[in-house]
Amino acid sequence: MNKNLIFVLFALLSYLMPATAQSQNFKIDTLQYQGTAKNIVNLVILGDGYTKDQLDDYAEDSKQFTNYFFSIEPFKQYSSFFNVFAIRTISEESGATHDCKASDCVHGDTDLSKYPRRYNKFTRDHAVPVTHPNTIFGSSFDNGGLHRLVVPQKNERIEEVLKTHIPNYTQVVILVNSPFYGGSGGKWATSTVNFKSNDIAVHEIGHSFAQLADEYWAGNQYAIESVNRSQTAAANAVPWKHWLGKDGVGIYSYGGKGSPSNWFRPHEYCKMQYLVAPFCPVCQEQFVASIKQKSSPFIAVKPVLNNVLTLDSVQKFTLQLAKPSPNTFKLVWSLNNEAIAHDIDSIYLDPGMLNIGANELKVIIQDTTDLLRDPKYVNHRDSIVWKFNQLKSYELAKPINTWGDTLETCFGGDQVITVKKPIAGLVYHWFETLTAVPIGTGNNVVIQKVSASKKYHVIAHWKDKHSVQSEVLLKTLPKVEKPRDIRVKINKKKNKVQLIIQDKVDARYNYIWSDAAGKPIYEWDEFNGEYVRPTGANNMLVLERTATGRKVYVQKVDKETTCKSDRTEVIF
């Protein structure tokens, strides 16, 4: 076969090969991982203009951006809703394209060797050299007649890298390895690594993630209605009407030269206008709404939801949730539309609570955050449902005591009896077994000042059903007698007072001294410089002598059981 024909065929085959077959695999840094990708906002960072030798710079830049991103509200509060991945994309050459044809481009050369390698403080009007590096995404300045408008040109390459590495991305940030000021929004939030780059990237995410408008006047071509820009000034008609009068939210004209006064914004100091500002309440609300739209608080649930269940024994139902910080979620668990638990992430369910036939266990989440005011967001609910098909009726399971059927208790002390794995929705009634006198209701009961061994029992109730009783013995340990013979010895020369317990020494016991408020007076550990619990008998206490009378108290302690006697008062 002709060699030229072979070459042509080879070239044709290479051209027809799928992009994925030609695509390069890059390393992925996982900067934050919260859970399964389908329920979480997947924030993906790509680098443009970073050579193979500059990947450490890219790693530094992507980490710095991530840290900054989660320092800004509302991302700080909703950080658990995000995964963050940085794909280490490699360019042949470093930097970005500068044609310097835009009217605001300042011509000139800049000796970058005189400046720190990262985050040079170049302002908008700094001299920019004309450059045309070969980069993976072809990011360039001078778009739309604005030098600072930096846009990646190789969109198909971006799509290819994302499809190959993280196809289920939610938001993409492209960091361009140029020290000069610039960035853009649109489908890909883009920013250089200028010293204002983090703010630029976050501002641009406002456009691409939350569809926020600029609150500075960018030109008539961008004059469209948005949640934070309107052509009406009517208080009952602006998109942010629910925020008026709160935290500086009002109706403000864009105004100014080249900025028509017939368009209005909600705030005078917002990151959509000034990079150094925080996001205003209206923009923060839109971010929270977008996060909720693009994710789910239910990262994982057990048992899985894709089957109709049948319960034949007590079973645990668990939620793994993405939560705001501080947590503003209100949770309601309901069984067949009857609330059985609130604000907990897991419950136990008893088959004795189910009807024969179809049943539903449902969890509803409402976010009560102050960042939301619009009723369509405030009234939003997230929910999941487990379905059951019960073939027969079951009795309620017998309650199990957490620590078994016997609890040892100090004489005169308190004890708490608790149901192990309490069932959501059941009511537990507690009784003294011999007298059948109810002593409490709930998952546990406190028995105070126990002076004799007694048996108690608990019964679970659900509607017209009740369980078999479960019994527990509170076994009272021997009473520890309080110290009685205490000698007070005064050393006037050293201005000290010695308190000495005269009881016969017994290695099983030691003593705890305390003030009138019950605060322990511990031994001073010279070596560690702190007060510590005594290891020895502690049957002598040395104090500074005072001019007025003083009281201290002492208790005898059984070191084996930690039971204590009543307090003995010492006056000196």
Number of domains: 4
How many DSSP H or I helices? 7
Largest sheet: 6 strands, mixed
Helix content, binned percent: 10-25%
Radius of gyration from CA coordinates: 36 Å
Widest sheet: strand ordering: 1-3-2-4-6-5
The termini sit apart by 117 Å
Mass-distribution shape: extended
Q: Mean pLDDT, rounded to whole units? A: 89
Signal peptide: 1-23
Organism: Sphingobacterium ginsenosidimutans
Keywords: Signal
Protein name: Ig-like domain-containing protein
Task: Write out key terms for the chains shown.
572 residues; alpha+beta; Collagenase (Catalytic Domain); Immunoglobulin-like; 6-stranded mixed beta sheet; extended
Give a verbal description of the structure.
This is Ig-like domain-containing protein. InterPro entries: MetalloPept_cat_dom_sf, Peptidase_M64_IgA. Keywords: Signal. Residues 1-23 form the signal peptide. This protein is of the alpha+beta class. It has 4 domains: 19-210, Collagenase (Catalytic Domain); 298-390, Immunoglobulin-like; 400-476, Immunoglobulin-like (Sandwich); 486-571, Immunoglobulin-like, CATH 2.60.40. Helix content is 13%, strand content 30%. The protein contains 7 helices and 33 strands. Helix 3 (55-69) crosses helix 5 (197-210).
List the helices and strands and how they pair.
Layout: H1 3-16, H2 19-22, E1 28-32, E2 41-48, H3 55-69, E3 82-87, H4 155-165, E4 171-176, E5 183-184, E6 189-192, H5 197-210, E7 252-253, E8 264-265, H6 281-294, E9 298-302, E10 315-321, E11 329-335, E12 338-342, E13 346-349, E14 357-367, H7 375-378, E15 382-390, E16 400-401, E17 406-409, E18 415-420, E19 427-432, E20 437-441, E21 444-447, E22 454-462, E23 465-466, E24 470-476, E25 486-491, E26 496-501, E27 509-514, E28 520-521, E29 523-525, E30 530-532, E31 540-544, E32 551-558, E33 568-571
Parallel strand pairs: 2-3, 2-4, 4-6, 17-24
Antiparallel strand pairs: 1-3, 5-6, 7-8, 9-10, 10-13, 11-12, 11-14, 14-15, 16-18, 18-21, 19-20, 19-22, 22-23, 22-24, 25-26, 26-31, 27-28, 27-32, 29-30, 32-33
Helix pairs in contact: 3-5
